[in-house]
Amino acid sequence: MSIPYQIKSLEQYHEVYKQSIENPEKFWGDIASNFRWKKPFDQVLDWNFAEPKIEWFKGGQLNITENCLDRWAETQSDTPALIWESNDVQEANRVLTYQELLTQVCQFAQVLKNKGIQKGDRICIYMPMVPELAIAILACARIGAIHSVVFGGFSAQSIADRINDASCKLVITADGGYRGNKEIPLKNVMDEALVQCDSVQKVIVLARNNMPISMLKGRDSWWHEEVHQVIEQGITFFEAVAMDAEDPLFILYTSGSTGKPKGVVHSSAGYMVYTNYTFINVFQYQAGDIHFCTADIGWITGHSYIVYGPLSAGATSLMFEGIPTWPDAGRFWDIVDKYKVNILYTAPTAIRSLMSFGTEILRDKDLSSLKVLGTVGEPINEEAWHWYHTNIGKEKCPIVDTWWQTETGGILISNLAGITPQIPSYATLPMPGIQPILVQENGQVIEGSDASLATLPSEIVSGNLAIKFPWPSMIRTTYGDHERCRTTYFSMYKNLYFTGDGCLRDTEGNYRITGRVDDVLNVSGHRIGTAELENAINSHTGVIESAIVGYPHEIKGQGIYAYIIYHGEGIDKKNAAQDIQATVTRLIGAIAKPDKIQFVSGLPKTRSGKIMRRILRKIAEGDTENLGDISTLLDPSVVEEIVQNVE
Ligand code: PRX
Prior knowledge:
The protein is α/β, with parallel strands linked by helices. It is 31% helix and 23% strand. It contains 18 helices and 30 strands. The strands form eight sheets. The protein has an eight-stranded mixed beta sheet, with helices on both faces. Strand 14 and strand 15 form a beta hairpin. It binds adenosine-5'-monophosphate-propyl ester. The site of adenosine-5'-monophosphate-propyl ester (PRX) has 22 residues, from helix 10, strand 20, strand 24 and strand 25.
């Protein structure tokens, strides 16, 4: 059987999956032949997880923007590529056809060239959710520069760390941005960051909200003036630079269980092939569909399923600048109604938050255009799943629960909309080519948990989720520190990629992700490393020591609970807590602010000085009856004191 690009039945899924496991190179080679290559590849895959070395489509050359733009501008030039909805309901929307997007990307690529940017240079992008953000990303890709997008909610210090780690040469930002009724001073925050960044030579600034900013002579210039010059020269096209399949496409920083965030590096060809394949299959995309992914492009979901996945499929991708609750909690549904959205892809935290406003707000909204719903970023609880299914999907839209990570580049485990079965709270089955495996802490493979085994277990099994074979869009390295990539993902279990997630597998082979098993929190679908957050809190002069744990939070999924030992007796707790929140906001960003702070006189530690987080987690969850054996602690009395002082 030749492999169908879009899987159309459960039977076909099983057949394609089987083929993809039995002969991955043939499978991915066939899939990859559907793209525009400047030079065909000679070898589909070369790999080992020991180094790790992962090389897909070796010898091939291409440019992802030719696949996202040129080929569609040639065949469907008037199809909208991007539809943009402003934060402000009164402001006119913007629609960019494939031809218009191609032209604007080419013109901005020329601007970057004029600034001396070469293939391989790193560019930091810190922008609001406006079409120019997508244009900036694609223009980098057009000339082979490596983009590093930093989410607009991160602080100056976080930006500086990321710029310095990648030695970015140029920054693209905006004067400011809008989020609901707030204005975000992006350029001012960037200026504060740039004081620490010697590598940055030029800054291009988009005028978005006209807030007062300082423009530094010789370094800063306006986006519109730069583009105007290029237009004056009559430039409408820029030849896409030929990229080797394995040339890096972008860096995206993400938090882990230790130290500072790491720069996850994605490649050009593999990332393109996999995001396209998963976009078309998971969402069962049909030509003409309007796809609305509500993520911010500052996260991997926006990279893969607002920009590269949909555009490489010639789809219409809807970009929304604002937030779901402004001017009221009906905003998403107004957008679905206004643009007749067909595919809606959002996060459980957004669903839970909108659920809390009730269904009255849905009354006058026409959601009948919706065909497929999706969720991503964290486990979805059954209550939220059913609410989404009943009230938004009117029980006729399949919900795809897509499990993946910044490091995986695209969706690894998910049902295919309307094709493979959906089970509330289960991500269900692996995508073709993906070989999940469950392992115990000690590395022992859990029997019957290996997708390629013919036999399924007779009971539900659980373990740590790992993947035993490469896929095209997987992480290649952590920028500037390959050893960190190896130790973080490939050393825990020999010859396996370790995900950091715990997982169940049922007797039908369906996977249910249960959450992180490392010291990473998932707050509103955002990854927060506890070590990074503790470092930030500990840098406050008043703090002696701190320990962070997660606890169940009705809207955010997980909330952040901080136990803090503070200097001196009789502190003003309210003031101290505010100072600590301000410190976190300054060093990381408001997304990492603890939801609860408890001042304590000591932390439960073992005799070797290790903090017993398990106990702190139980207390934060309110489960003080089941703290387990505390007799081995250095000072068991601190536990009692902490329990007594819970507020
Ligand atoms: O714990 C898993 C959770 O989010 C983590 C990855 O976070 P990040 O790299 O920020 O990427 C988020 C968007 C892809 C995973 O290790 N996660 C993601 N999707 C799901 C999920 N947990 C349960 N179900 C999901 N569908």
